[in-house]
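One-letter codes give the sequence; the integers encode the fold. A sample entry reads:
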Amino acid sequence: MPESCTLLRLTLAGVVVALFAMFWTFTGPLSGYWSGYSAFKSMEVSQKTYEQQYPAFETVAETLQDKFHHPPSLSCTNAILQHPLEGVVEKWINLTWARSDSLHLLFYGEAMLGKSCTIRKVLDKLARANVPFFYHTYQSERGFDGFVKDMCAPAVVGPDKLEAFEISMRKYADLVRSPKRNNALLVIDFATTDLNGLRILQTYAKVIHHESYPVRFVFVASEAQAPTTFQASQRIEQVRLTESDDTLARAYLQQYVGIQDEAQLQEITQFTGSIFKYLSEVRSMWPQDRPGTDADVQAAKKAVFSVIERELGHLLEPRIYPEVVEICKQLIQHNTLSLSTIYEIAETNTKGSEGFQKRTEYILSQNLFLVDQGSGTVSFQNRATASFMTEYL
């Protein structure tokens, strides 16, 4: 009898364990769902509470629609001649706003290429075709808060700008959503390096994509500003804008400046790097009442190099940044250097001072150098910078 009771107890215990295992098998995976659902519901409650605190959200959708469809003029004084990048930029922007399944856009490339000016010119053209967009120059000192205030003000007055952005996008989507709707474009031009701002906006690009909101981000950044995590995003189409060749620069110099001499054309395209900002500097001082001479070419070079020197500013102070001088000497000799070599030079020239790594990151983010994250190499930002540093040193 005792043996049968023991057997019965063991059998009952086995049944309990089996039932518990079955229960866990079916409900365990659901726990993640329930917790996620709870978090989503709590977020909804949070947003509703936030909306109730700020009644101006009632009109935020209309405010956004008005800003998207009535943008201010973005005319760019540097856009004297059609830039070769205009066709590329216009094609991608048209695809992004016209297709409901389009990704967000990242335009990036070397500094002073004319990215901002070209994009502003294209947007001005598209505004006349009723393409909805909002253009914002993103600056570190104002950050994400500044962007949301400029985009939604005066509707958004609360302290939580992330919450405000999400609510605003949802309300705008509810207002304009339709099977044939086009996307409004949030064009963010990064005037300064702000990796935190980039990461926040990348997160919200994912939210917009996931919720199928009729809005797309168009980011504009220099090659040094676009972090590898940003470029690797599957929801963002990356378009690298490369340096224009000398063909357009020569046409500009011949048509607008009146230079026909082949040797002069070659030298000017070399020290300006065919960058329109520097070509305009040549034009501003080129003689109009007589043919230009070699002395005029040298005077133009001096003027262009003065502009570059002002742009680089304190980076050229050997007392402040001794490592910059050594890095530039090495680049003049080898054209490219590995990132590890750059850090070794920096450590040696700063005697391994505390924080030299952050200091080096700052130097590499400036318009003197171009960092290729893919190959892990560093070169001069462009031909104009390389020409300047070769003479400067």
